[in-house]
Amino acid sequence: QVQLVESGGGLVQAGGSLRLSCAASGRTFSRYGAMAWFRQAPGKEREFVAAISWSGSNTYYAESVKGRFSISRDNAKNTVYLQMNSLKPVDTAVYYCGARMSYYDDYAHGPSYDYWGQGTQVTVSS
């Protein structure tokens, strides 16, 4: 089992920044695995935001956040980060961290992730 705990959410004005953290514990991560951030706004389905391979050498982003968000990881701390800059009101959502232990070529495919955190609320005011 893997436990994921997100932190860093909050209320910020449009144009501001936040950094989310996702601390993982439990089972050792596989070199074929990946971690990702998804988000879910009220009344909408959960959507992919960003993902990073186990080594950190490959990153993937949704078009809507490219150039504004940056995903990174520190394997020594078993932690993944999401730096969010130039935030917009449309970024308001609950952000979830996901982790998977095996390879799957679509990093944006939510069901391929085996474990999820409880989510952290991000609210961007206009």
Set out the fold topology.
Elements lengths: L1 E6 L2 E4 L4 E9 L7 E7 L6 E7 L5 E3 L7 E6 L4 E6 L8 E8 L14 E2 L3 E6 L1
Parallel strand pairs: 2-11
Antiparallel strand pairs: 1-3, 3-8, 4-5, 4-9, 5-6, 7-8, 9-10, 9-11
Structure description:
The mean pLDDT is 93. Helix content is 0%, strand content 51%. It is mainly β.
The radius of gyration computed from the alpha-carbon positions, rounded to a whole number of angstroms, is 14 Å
User: How would you describe the shape?
Assistant: globular
Question: How much helix is in the residues?
Answer: under 10%
Instruction: Please write the string of helix (H) and strand (E) elements.
Output: EEEEEEEEEEE
N→C terminal distance: 40 Å
Can you summarize the main beta sheet?
7 strands, mixed
Structural class: mainly beta
- The total count of helices amounts to 0
Low-confidence stretches: none
Average pLDDT metric: 93
Strand proportion: over 45%
How many E strands? 11
Q: What keywords describe this structure?
A:
single chain, about 130 residues, mainly beta, 11 strands
Give a quick rundown of the structure.
This protein is mostly beta strands and 126 residues long.
